[in-house]
Amino acid sequence: MIRAYTFLLRPTSRQAASLTACLADHRHIYNAAVEERREAYRRARVTVRDGDQSAQLKDIRRADPDHARWSFSSQQATLRRLDKAFAAFFRRIKAGQTPGYPRFKGAGWFDTVVWPKDGDGCRWDSTPDSGQTRVYLQGVGHMRVHAHRKVDGRIKTISVKREGRRWYLILACDDVPAEPLPPTGGPVGIDMGVAAFLTTSDGVQVDNPRHLAACADRLAEAQRALARRRRGSNRCRKVRARVAALHGKVRRQRLDHAHKTARWLVGQYDLIAHEGLRTSNMTRSAAGTVEQPGRNVAAKSGLNRSILDAGWRVFLNVLHAKAESAGRVVVEVDPRNTSRLCPTCGHCVAENRATQAVFRCVGCGHTTHADVDAAGNTLRAGLARQTTTAV
């Protein structure tokens, strides 16, 4: 199986400056390639290919020593990245979707450089006996890495990513052995929510930490300070970095909670059934405009914020990855009517959901917690789907 390991880099101030220069030079190559493709098609209706642009790298490196200090392979990877963007652009045109022409990358929109092969302009140097882990990047040198876990498998690509003032190393590894857990014999259904992060069919509820809400006051203060700063000034850059740091902290807290919750579920159950939620559809704006607002626009805005703060999609992605490694089964079921169906008599109407927390069947009078009922219906649908698939 394929797995990506993300580690925090510990560069010196000089190495951080070199990494920043590396990003800038790769961004310039990316933007120059976009300009060449656009002008070639506008002037002569000629399509420039990835191989044509890669062949020009030798001349660029020969003419500009700044570009020559970086890895040739990493520059080729940047051009392949642009080629994939154009391929996706043409694919969307053929499919009748919104095309989205590849854009020029500004200084804050290009934060990743990829080295496509370990040992070609980069080298992962892990020596457990010495207790030190380092990575070598051409033009930067050896940097310390906070390797908090063991790296398994064969390293395919090495990437460096900037997030605010932090630098991260991403190792994409192939042939990573699975780590199956002993069977428990127990299935479970889960219902995602906002009042509680999730509820299991066993009646266990996991609290919603609401990381963004906890940081809302400090974030609002920083954003107000940013609005008062003159754009492009040093004070503006400092406040913008503070806003980015607060958002980064919330994102890391949300990811940590997702990992811990998913690890608990994978360790306790052999089969996990969840609703196939479409978060992007659920968090669309309410109908209406500023001149003619629709109904409950403010309430829908608050609900959207709570759903995005909970991070359902992040959690489900982590859950699927951990289940694959542990040999567990994760089943996605249709979310329609899971919170309205009575498990006793099968009566399914909207009136069964008396309140947000109470389920009371109008047909037979069965009463239970609404989230537990939804989780139980999700489990039954998941087991039925597994039976149908097995047959």
The count of DSSP E runs of length 2 or more, i.e. the number of strands, is 14
Rg is 25 Å
Poorly predicted segments: none
The class by helix and strand makeup works out as alpha+beta
Could you give the order of strands across the largest sheet?
Answer: 2-6-7-1-5-4-3
Rounded mean pLDDT is 90
The H/E string reads: EHHHHHEEEEEEEEEHHHEHHHEEEH
Provide the descriptors you would attach to this structure in a database record:
391 residues, alpha+beta, five-stranded mixed beta sheet, 14 strands, 20% strand
Description:
This protein is α+β, with helices and mostly antiparallel strands and 391 residues long. The protein has 2 domains: 3-174, no CATH class; 187-390, no CATH class. It has 12 helices and 14 strands. Strands 2-6-7-1-5-4-3 form a 7-stranded antiparallel beta sheet. It has a 5-stranded mixed beta sheet with strand order 10-9-8-11-12. β3 and β4 (132-137) form a beta hairpin. The longest helix is centred in the middle third of the chain and has 35 residues, at 234-268. The chain starts with a strand and ends with a helix.
